[in-house]
Structure to design on (123 residues):
């Protein structure tokens, strides 16, 4: 069994920065990448970005490039999502996911998911 646990969410003001993290535990598996998704009330879960586990190469949805940064610490089995200049529209539950596949933009690619951490940005 593989577990992903997010942490670091909270209530912040517009313009603030926040970093959320996701730690993997349990059965070892050969992941190709870790992804971050977010879901706001009434909206579908959307891709935020992903990081290739071995190389550290990152990929982002176009609208978030430059504001959000993904990194990972392989020794800690943890991936991070740093969010800068937060806006009220960034309010969502942020979930991490792990995949052994290659199409990192698609939700269906991911094998394991965390429960998510709530990020609320007040105006």
């Amino acid at each position: 069994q593989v577990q992903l646990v997010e942490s670091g969410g909270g209530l912040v003001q517009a313009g603030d920065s926040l970093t959320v993290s996701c730690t993997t535990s349990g059965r070892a598996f050969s992941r190709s990448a870790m992804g971050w998704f977010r879901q706001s009330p009434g909206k579908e879960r959307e891709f935020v970005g992903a990081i290739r586990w071995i190389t550290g190469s990152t990929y982002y949805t176009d609208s978030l490039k430059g504001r959000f940064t993904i990194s990972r610490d392989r020794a800690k089995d943890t991936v991070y999502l740093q969010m800068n200049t937060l806006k009220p529209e960034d309010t969502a539950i942020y979930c991490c996911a792990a995949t052994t596949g290659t199409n990192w933009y698609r939700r269906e690619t991911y094998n394991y998911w965390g429960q998510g951490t709530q990020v609320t940005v007040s105006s």
